[in-house]
From TrEMBL:
Stored PANTHER family: PHOSPHOLIPASE C-BETA-2-RELATED (PTHR39082), SCAVENGER RECEPTOR CLASS A MEMBER 3 (PTHR39082:SF1)
Gene3D superfamilies with a match to the protein in the record: 1.10.287.1490
Coiled coil regions in record: 67-152
Organism: Malaciobacter marinus
Name of the protein: Zinc ribbon domain-containing protein (DUF164 domain)
Superkingdom of the source species: Bacteria
The entry's keywords: Coiled coil
Domain C4-type zinc ribbon: 198-230
Pfam families linked: Zn_ribbon_9
The UniProt record lists the keyword Coiled coil: yes
Amino acid sequence: MNKYLEDLVKLSKFDTQISMFEPQIENEKAKLATFVETAEAIKVSINNTYVLIDEVKSKRTKNNIHLAELKTKLDDIAKKHKEVQNEKELKALQLEEEIAKEQISFANEEIARLDEITEERESQLKEFQEKLAQEEESIKDIQIAVDNQIEDINKQRNVVYQQRSELLEKVDSKILTFYEKIRRWAKDTAVVPVKKQACYGCHMKINDKTYAEVVKSDEIINCPHCGRILYKEDETVEA
């Protein structure tokens, strides 16, 4: 294979490797992000539950105040019974007493209902807090694993960067400029193999004459369809 072409193939493979490192890092970060999102969602549920508990307790307090007022009213009615002068006044007091007792009964039922809701919400709150503790523990473990993985990826990337830098020192500047021009639009497919007599970049079949020149590898050949640099892989690699 032509030395310049060989250098471009190596350079292209280095660039492809480098491009793959960032998605790998993002993928590792995404693993952690999933657990963080879950933890944040649980925190929102905890805050909402606190708000609901406060609302229920506030309603209970109002009912207690109302209940106290009704009991005071009953005491007043009891005192008025001693001052009743006729049957009409007695019936009015009895009706007022009956209504007050019904209201007391309803207030007690409402307080019992609110207590059940509070107990249920506090049970949910405890479950959320336990889940949050578990998630936060998982986040710690995953953070360590992700950090270690990213560190390994960065080490690999640094090795590839070093190898690429060493190669660049040997590559002819004109050839490098030519490669970079194609890479601006072709990205990591600036240099592609020919497989089954087709460009592996645009997947268009190339004519016999161009294919023969690619097989010889004496010169740098561009795809007649897309302009990418072509090369023929060893049969074992292609297989």
